[in-house]
Amino acid sequence: MNKRQVLDDVLAGRPTVGVPTLFWKHFAGDDALGDAAVRAHRDWVTATDPVLIKVMNEQLYPVAPDWESVAPYRVDEPRFQEQLRVVRALVEEYGESHQVFVTMHGVVISAFHSTGVPGYEPNRMLVSKALREQTEAVDAAYQTVAESLIAHAEAYLDAGADGITYAALGGERSNFTADEFARHVRPRDLAVLEAIGDAGGTRMLHLCKDDLDIDRFRGYPTELVSWGARLNDISFERARALFPDATLVGGIASDDPLFAGGPQADRDPDATIERVVAENGGRGRLIVGADCSLPDQTAGRDVGVLAAAAARA
């Protein structure tokens, strides 16, 4: 049985042999683009044996001089076409054995990227502050970004991708208020996710960062959910209550010592898998993974130790 069928079984709640896993990291520097990106993905897949191919995406939303100037990110732009070329190459290589998901930065983080300011972590308040000061212009920019992301998703699916991983940032309590999120962010996120579903794509909703108010995402349409469980102390039980029909992806902190230069002497990968399964209440609709991207320096062979433990669980 190949991984395409395994993922179908997991999504349907059918039993699988072993526990499927999915871990990812950003491919830095020269490995982020072009043929080097394809090779980096291939090496990672070989080492980590994931249940699906998660295509990373470093082609960020184009920078604009101000909020009024945020323009559509057209699919015919060379930068997007370069990402599409990576997607097509990975679909050609893995499409028969695995389902291929393309990572898309959501409305909030794409809007942040349009400012050209590096580092969301120290500067996350930039987008909410701008919304309060220039509500009309920033809201219009969010709409432009959402429409661009819909076009991107459709292009990826037309290129043979099976699904989209949608990174929905902006749910931190200390960033937008609940009302700001409901008025300006949620409708755009929903539009993108619904368009992906309408186009036949499978959706993986990725919710990360600290101070996450996961309740803001209740009702988002998705088949899989990856969330900052350990970073925010959000249990499997709570995530399951919010997304009752989704497969949960996670259970291990992305900074776990297991990923720091190999399994530590006092760490047992088999026990780690057993713990995650127990926290989920069993194997049903579970993919073991990390809260978010692993550190760039993480070696695939160290992740492979966990994947092997899950395969024999």
UniProtKB/TrEMBL annotation:
Could you tell me which InterPro entries the record lists for this protein?
UROD/MetE-like_sf, Uroporphyrinogen_deCOase
GO molecular-function annotation terms? uroporphyrinogen decarboxylase activity
Q: Report domain Uroporphyrinogen decarboxylase (URO-D) positions.
A: 66-310
* Xref: Pfam families: URO-D (PF01208)
One GO BP annotation here? porphyrin-containing compound biosynthetic process
Q: Which domain of life is it from?
A: Bacteria
Protein name, per record: Uroporphyrinogen decarboxylase (URO-D) domain-containing protein
